[in-house]
Amino acid sequence: MSPRSVLFVCLGNICRSPVAEGVFRHALQQRFGAASAAWRVDSAGTSDYHAGQAPDPRSQASALRHGVDISGQRSRAFSTADFEEFDHILVMDSSNHVNVCRLTDNPSHLAKVQLMLDVSFPGENKPVPDPYYGGDHGFEHVYQLLAQASEDWLEQWT
After folding, report:
1. Cα 157 → chain centroid
2. Short-list 119, 88, 116, 118, CA closest to 4
3. Which of 64, 70, 71, 125 lies at a CB distance of 3.0 to 4.6 Å from 22, suitable for a disulfide?
4. For residue 83, what pLDDT band results from cuts at 50, 70 and 90?
5. Which tens digits make up the pLDDT trace of 90-138?
6. Is 93 marked active-site?
7. How, if at all, do strands 5-10 and 88-91 pair?
8. Rounded CA separation 116/48 (Å)
9. Domains in the chain, please, with CATH?
10. Cα-based angle 142, 147, 153 (whole degrees, multiple of 5)
């Protein structure tokens, strides 16, 4: 396994992308054990609305039901430096994709940006739905989508 780096991006970095980060870390640990430390995994938002805040309590609860603790994460805004820092930038929906790609015209940077669910639903441009204004069921649905996509990305990359 060669070291890789992946950044997960949503709007506020309190619902979808922190769960994606936690789920992906968990999948790495399950698959590679101590060798998972060779990976750099982080999350960010295209806005700074929630900078420094912990993930939404509903995201934390959903992840924790599956043994994934994301309570120590803190929201941060996406930075143009992230294009250099990460091999893969996985965004949650087309709006995030547009907002991230708007920050560069470098073809090698743009090639790093993909929709999170492209690996599980090729060619469908399927978004990870934002559960913020919904109930617990929405957070569980997001968890399940992200867990499957994490496994699918790892299968593709390793």
Report:
1. 16
2. 88
3. 70
4. very high
5. 999 999 999 999 999 999 999 999 999 999 999 999 999 999 988 889 9
6. no
7. parallel
8. 21
9. 5-157 (3.40.50.2300)
10. 120
Specify whether 10 is catalytic.
yes
Q: State the sign of the Cα–Cα–Cα–Cα dihedral 130, 148, 107, 87.
A: positive
Is residue 64 over pLDDT 60? yes
Please determine, for residue 2, whether its predicted confidence score (pLDDT) is greater than 80: no
Strand order, beta sheet including 88-91: 40-45, 5-10, 88-91, 113-115
- The catalytic position among 15, 16, 42, 56 is 16
Residue 3 has pLDDT above 70, yes or no: no
The one catalytic residue in 42, 56, 93, 130 is 130
Catalytic residue among 10, 15, 56, 58: 10
